[in-house]
Protein backbone atom coordinates (compact mmCIF):
# COMPACT_ATOMS: atom_id res chain seq x y z
CA UNK A 1 0.00 0.00 0.00
CA UNK A 2 1.06 3.60 -0.58
CA UNK A 3 1.63 5.59 2.61
CA UNK A 4 -0.33 8.78 3.18
CA UNK A 5 2.82 10.86 2.58
CA UNK A 6 3.65 9.29 -0.77
CA UNK A 7 1.71 10.08 -3.96
CA UNK A 8 -0.29 7.32 -5.61
CA UNK A 9 1.61 6.30 -8.76
CA UNK A 10 -0.54 3.32 -9.80
CA UNK A 11 -3.55 4.06 -11.98
CA UNK A 12 -5.32 1.03 -10.55
CA UNK A 13 -5.32 2.81 -7.19
CA UNK A 14 -5.91 6.40 -8.36
CA UNK A 15 -8.66 8.04 -6.28
CA UNK A 16 -11.89 8.98 -8.05
CA UNK A 17 -12.85 12.63 -7.71
CA UNK A 18 -15.43 15.07 -9.08
CA UNK A 19 -15.60 18.79 -9.80
CA UNK A 20 -18.76 20.71 -10.67
CA UNK A 21 -18.76 23.71 -13.00
CA UNK A 22 -21.31 25.37 -15.29
CA UNK A 23 -24.05 22.89 -14.47
CA UNK A 24 -22.03 19.70 -15.05
CA UNK A 25 -20.10 17.43 -12.74
CA UNK A 26 -16.90 15.99 -14.21
CA UNK A 27 -15.53 12.69 -12.94
CA UNK A 28 -11.74 12.45 -12.88
CA UNK A 29 -8.83 10.59 -11.35
CA UNK A 30 -5.45 11.93 -10.39
CA UNK A 31 -2.14 10.37 -9.42
CA UNK A 32 1.54 11.14 -9.31
CA UNK A 33 3.39 13.89 -7.43
CA UNK A 34 1.55 17.22 -7.12
CA UNK A 35 3.05 20.52 -8.16
CA UNK A 36 4.13 21.95 -11.47
CA UNK A 37 2.26 21.52 -14.74
CA UNK A 38 -0.13 18.53 -14.80
CA UNK A 39 -0.45 16.07 -17.68
CA UNK A 40 -4.13 15.86 -18.65
CA UNK A 41 -5.18 12.75 -20.61
CA UNK A 42 -7.78 13.18 -23.38
CA UNK A 43 -9.54 9.88 -23.99
CA UNK A 44 -10.80 8.12 -27.13
CA UNK A 45 -14.20 7.37 -28.67
CA UNK A 46 -16.56 5.47 -26.35
CA UNK A 47 -13.97 5.52 -23.56
CA UNK A 48 -14.30 6.16 -19.85
CA UNK A 49 -11.73 6.50 -17.06
CA UNK A 50 -11.18 2.74 -17.17
CA UNK A 51 -9.92 2.72 -20.78
CA UNK A 52 -6.42 4.10 -20.21
CA UNK A 53 -3.56 1.61 -20.40
CA UNK A 54 -2.05 1.59 -16.89
CA UNK A 55 1.40 0.83 -18.33
CA UNK A 56 1.44 4.24 -20.04
CA UNK A 57 -0.28 6.23 -17.27
CA UNK A 58 1.94 4.76 -14.54
CA UNK A 59 5.14 5.50 -16.48
CA UNK A 60 4.24 9.18 -16.72
CA UNK A 61 2.86 9.39 -13.16
CA UNK A 62 6.22 8.36 -11.70
CA UNK A 63 7.37 11.96 -12.07
CA UNK A 64 4.29 13.97 -13.11
CA UNK A 65 0.87 14.91 -11.76
CA UNK A 66 -1.51 13.00 -14.07
CA UNK A 67 -5.22 13.74 -14.48
CA UNK A 68 -7.70 11.65 -16.48
CA UNK A 69 -11.33 12.71 -16.92
CA UNK A 70 -14.68 11.72 -18.41
CA UNK A 71 -16.20 14.02 -21.02
CA UNK A 72 -19.66 15.41 -20.27
CA UNK A 73 -22.38 12.76 -20.36
CA UNK A 74 -19.86 9.89 -20.39
CA UNK A 75 -19.05 7.48 -17.56
CA UNK A 76 -19.57 9.17 -14.21
CA UNK A 77 -19.67 12.73 -15.63
CA UNK A 78 -23.07 14.39 -15.89
CA UNK A 79 -24.48 16.63 -18.59
CA UNK A 80 -25.12 16.16 -22.29
CA UNK A 81 -22.63 14.51 -24.63
CA UNK A 82 -21.32 17.24 -26.98
CA UNK A 83 -22.53 17.17 -30.59
CA UNK A 84 -19.24 18.46 -31.97
CA UNK A 85 -15.53 18.04 -31.25
CA UNK A 86 -15.25 21.82 -30.84
CA UNK A 87 -17.89 21.71 -28.09
CA UNK A 88 -16.02 18.84 -26.43
CA UNK A 89 -12.92 21.07 -26.42
CA UNK A 90 -14.94 23.83 -24.73
CA UNK A 91 -15.97 21.33 -22.05
CA UNK A 92 -12.36 20.22 -21.57
CA UNK A 93 -11.42 23.88 -21.05
CA UNK A 94 -14.23 24.21 -18.50
CA UNK A 95 -12.91 21.20 -16.60
CA UNK A 96 -9.27 22.36 -16.61
CA UNK A 97 -10.28 25.88 -15.54
CA UNK A 98 -12.45 24.47 -12.73
CA UNK A 99 -9.38 22.69 -11.34
CA UNK A 100 -7.50 25.99 -11.37
CA UNK A 101 -4.81 25.23 -13.96
CA UNK A 102 -3.52 27.89 -16.33
CA UNK A 103 -0.97 25.66 -18.08
CA UNK A 104 -1.09 21.93 -18.85
CA UNK A 105 0.57 19.23 -20.91
CA UNK A 106 -1.73 16.96 -22.92
CA UNK A 107 -1.53 13.25 -23.64
CA UNK A 108 -4.23 12.33 -26.15
CA UNK A 109 -5.41 9.30 -28.09
CA UNK A 110 -7.74 9.13 -31.12
CA UNK A 111 -10.82 11.34 -30.57
CA UNK A 112 -8.99 12.85 -27.62
CA UNK A 113 -6.33 14.13 -30.02
CA UNK A 114 -9.01 15.83 -32.13
CA UNK A 115 -10.40 17.51 -29.00
CA UNK A 116 -6.88 18.56 -27.96
CA UNK A 117 -6.26 20.21 -31.34
CA UNK A 118 -9.51 22.18 -31.16
CA UNK A 119 -8.64 23.23 -27.59
CA UNK A 120 -5.26 24.62 -28.67
CA UNK A 121 -6.79 26.45 -31.65
CA UNK A 122 -8.98 28.39 -29.18
CA UNK A 123 -6.54 28.54 -26.24
CA UNK A 124 -3.02 28.42 -27.69
CA UNK A 125 -1.31 29.48 -24.45
CA UNK A 126 -2.94 26.80 -22.28
CA UNK A 127 -0.86 23.86 -23.50
CA UNK A 128 2.92 23.56 -23.00
CA UNK A 129 3.67 20.12 -24.54
CA UNK A 130 1.41 17.90 -26.67
CA UNK A 131 1.24 14.17 -27.35
CA UNK A 132 -1.06 13.14 -30.24
CA UNK A 133 -1.51 9.39 -30.76
CA UNK A 134 -3.77 7.50 -33.18
CA UNK A 135 -5.36 10.71 -34.37
CA UNK A 136 -5.65 13.12 -37.30
CA UNK A 137 -6.34 16.73 -38.27
CA UNK A 138 -9.73 18.37 -38.74
CA UNK A 139 -10.85 17.67 -42.31
CA UNK A 140 -8.39 14.77 -42.58
CA UNK A 141 -8.94 12.29 -45.42
CA UNK A 142 -11.30 9.41 -44.52
CA UNK A 143 -11.73 10.36 -40.83
CA UNK A 144 -15.47 10.40 -41.50
CA UNK A 145 -15.32 6.67 -42.37
CA UNK A 146 -14.66 5.82 -38.72
CA UNK A 147 -18.42 5.33 -38.24
CA UNK A 148 -18.64 2.38 -40.63
CA UNK A 149 -15.44 0.79 -39.33
CA UNK A 150 -16.63 1.09 -35.73
CA UNK A 151 -20.05 -0.47 -36.27
CA UNK A 152 -18.57 -3.30 -38.36
CA UNK A 153 -15.97 -4.16 -35.72
CA UNK A 154 -18.52 -3.97 -32.90
CA UNK A 155 -20.55 -6.54 -34.85
CA UNK A 156 -17.49 -8.76 -35.37
CA UNK A 157 -16.62 -8.54 -31.68
CA UNK A 158 -20.19 -9.37 -30.64
CA UNK A 159 -20.23 -12.48 -32.85
CA UNK A 160 -16.97 -13.71 -31.31
CA UNK A 161 -17.78 -12.56 -27.75
CA UNK A 162 -14.71 -10.34 -27.76
CA UNK A 163 -14.02 -6.76 -26.71
CA UNK A 164 -14.51 -4.45 -29.74
CA UNK A 165 -11.13 -2.84 -28.99
CA UNK A 166 -9.44 -6.13 -29.96
CA UNK A 167 -10.73 -5.57 -33.51
CA UNK A 168 -10.63 -1.76 -33.67
CA UNK A 169 -7.17 -1.24 -32.14
CA UNK A 170 -5.13 -4.28 -33.20
CA UNK A 171 -4.28 -6.24 -36.33
CA UNK A 172 -6.03 -9.59 -36.69
CA UNK A 173 -2.82 -11.61 -37.01
CA UNK A 174 -1.32 -13.72 -34.22
CA UNK A 175 0.75 -10.80 -32.87
CA UNK A 176 -2.14 -8.37 -32.94
CA UNK A 177 -4.62 -10.79 -31.36
CA UNK A 178 -2.22 -11.50 -28.47
CA UNK A 179 -1.53 -7.78 -27.99
CA UNK A 180 -5.26 -7.02 -27.99
CA UNK A 181 -6.07 -9.60 -25.32
CA UNK A 182 -3.15 -8.41 -23.17
CA UNK A 183 -4.34 -4.80 -23.47
CA UNK A 184 -7.93 -5.66 -22.51
CA UNK A 185 -6.61 -7.65 -19.53
CA UNK A 186 -4.54 -4.66 -18.33
CA UNK A 187 -7.69 -2.50 -18.41
CA UNK A 188 -9.17 -4.82 -15.75
CA UNK A 189 -6.40 -4.25 -13.21
CA UNK A 190 -8.49 -1.74 -11.28
CA UNK A 191 -10.94 -3.84 -9.30
CA UNK A 192 -12.75 -1.26 -7.14
CA UNK A 193 -14.64 1.95 -7.86
CA UNK A 194 -14.72 1.34 -11.60
CA UNK A 195 -16.40 3.73 -14.02
CA UNK A 196 -19.75 3.31 -15.79
CA UNK A 197 -19.67 2.13 -19.41
CA UNK A 198 -20.67 4.61 -22.11
CA UNK A 199 -24.27 4.36 -23.32
CA UNK A 200 -25.11 3.48 -26.92
CA UNK A 201 -26.76 6.90 -27.37
CA UNK A 202 -23.57 8.65 -26.20
CA UNK A 203 -21.45 6.53 -28.56
CA UNK A 204 -23.65 7.46 -31.51
CA UNK A 205 -23.38 11.15 -30.62
CA UNK A 206 -19.57 10.93 -30.46
CA UNK A 207 -19.41 9.12 -33.81
CA UNK A 208 -21.48 11.86 -35.45
CA UNK A 209 -19.18 14.49 -33.93
CA UNK A 210 -16.11 12.74 -35.40
CA UNK A 211 -17.88 12.48 -38.78
CA UNK A 212 -18.54 16.26 -38.74
CA UNK A 213 -14.90 16.88 -37.75
CA UNK A 214 -13.71 14.78 -40.67
CA UNK A 215 -15.92 16.67 -43.11
CA UNK A 216 -15.01 20.16 -41.84
CA UNK A 217 -12.53 22.68 -43.20
CA UNK A 218 -9.01 22.07 -41.81
CA UNK A 219 -7.66 24.06 -38.86
CA UNK A 220 -4.42 26.00 -39.31
CA UNK A 221 -2.01 23.85 -37.30
CA UNK A 222 0.99 25.91 -38.46
CA UNK A 223 0.17 28.22 -35.53
CA UNK A 224 0.99 25.47 -32.99
CA UNK A 225 4.19 26.35 -31.16
CA UNK A 226 4.23 23.67 -28.46
CA UNK A 227 6.66 20.73 -28.83
CA UNK A 228 4.53 17.86 -30.20
CA UNK A 229 5.04 14.09 -30.22
CA UNK A 230 2.92 12.13 -32.73
CA UNK A 231 2.66 8.32 -32.67
CA UNK A 232 0.64 5.55 -34.32
CA UNK A 233 0.79 2.04 -35.69
CA UNK A 234 1.54 1.51 -39.39
CA UNK A 235 -1.88 -0.02 -40.13
CA UNK A 236 -4.47 2.17 -38.38
CA UNK A 237 -7.91 1.31 -39.79
CA UNK A 238 -9.83 3.79 -37.60
CA UNK A 239 -7.83 6.99 -38.13
CA UNK A 240 -5.59 6.09 -41.10
CA UNK A 241 -1.85 6.21 -40.42
CA UNK A 242 -1.31 8.71 -43.25
CA UNK A 243 -3.12 11.25 -41.06
CA UNK A 244 -0.39 10.97 -38.41
CA UNK A 245 2.08 11.82 -41.17
CA UNK A 246 -0.22 14.67 -42.23
CA UNK A 247 -0.18 16.04 -38.65
CA UNK A 248 3.61 15.77 -38.61
CA UNK A 249 3.83 17.90 -41.77
CA UNK A 250 1.38 20.49 -40.46
CA UNK A 251 2.87 20.94 -36.96
CA UNK A 252 6.30 22.54 -37.25
CA UNK A 253 9.09 20.72 -35.43
CA UNK A 254 6.89 17.79 -34.37
CA UNK A 255 8.31 14.31 -33.78
CA UNK A 256 6.71 11.25 -35.43
CA UNK A 257 6.90 7.60 -34.35
CA UNK A 258 5.23 4.86 -36.42
CA UNK A 259 5.31 1.36 -34.92
CA UNK A 260 5.52 -1.63 -37.31
CA UNK A 261 2.89 -4.36 -37.72
CA UNK A 262 0.37 -2.60 -35.49
CA UNK A 263 -2.91 -0.76 -35.77
CA UNK A 264 -4.81 2.07 -34.06
CA UNK A 265 -3.56 0.82 -30.68
CA UNK A 266 0.08 0.72 -31.73
CA UNK A 267 1.14 2.66 -28.63
CA UNK A 268 -0.54 0.02 -26.45
CA UNK A 269 0.95 -2.90 -28.38
CA UNK A 270 4.39 -1.28 -28.05
CA UNK A 271 3.84 0.19 -24.58
CA UNK A 272 7.23 -1.04 -23.33
CA UNK A 273 8.95 1.10 -25.97
CA UNK A 274 6.48 3.98 -26.12
CA UNK A 275 5.79 4.67 -22.43
CA UNK A 276 9.38 5.72 -21.56
CA UNK A 277 9.60 7.83 -24.74
CA UNK A 278 6.36 9.64 -23.88
CA UNK A 279 7.41 10.11 -20.25
CA UNK A 280 10.77 11.56 -21.28
CA UNK A 281 9.15 13.87 -23.85
CA UNK A 282 6.65 15.20 -21.29
CA UNK A 283 9.38 15.63 -18.65
CA UNK A 284 11.48 17.89 -20.89
TrEMBL record:
InterPro entries: AB_hydrolase (IPR050471), AB_hydrolase_1 (IPR000073), AB_hydrolase_fold (IPR029058). One of its GO terms (molecular function) is hydrolase activity. The keyword Hydrolase applies. Transmembrane segments: none annotated. Gene3D superfamilies: alpha/beta hydrolase (3.40.50.1820). Residues 39-268 form the AB hydrolase-1 domain. Pfam families: Abhydrolase_1. Keywords: Hydrolase. This is Alpha/beta fold hydrolase. It comes from Nocardioides astragali.
Amino acid sequence: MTSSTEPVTSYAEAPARTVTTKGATYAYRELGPRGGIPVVFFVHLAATLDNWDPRIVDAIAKTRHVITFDQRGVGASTGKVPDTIEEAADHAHEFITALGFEKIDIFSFSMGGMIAQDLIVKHPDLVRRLVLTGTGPRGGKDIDKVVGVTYWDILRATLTRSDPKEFLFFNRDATGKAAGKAFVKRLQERTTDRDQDITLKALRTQLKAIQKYGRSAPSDLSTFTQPTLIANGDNDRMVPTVLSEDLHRRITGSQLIIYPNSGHGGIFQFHEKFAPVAAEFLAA
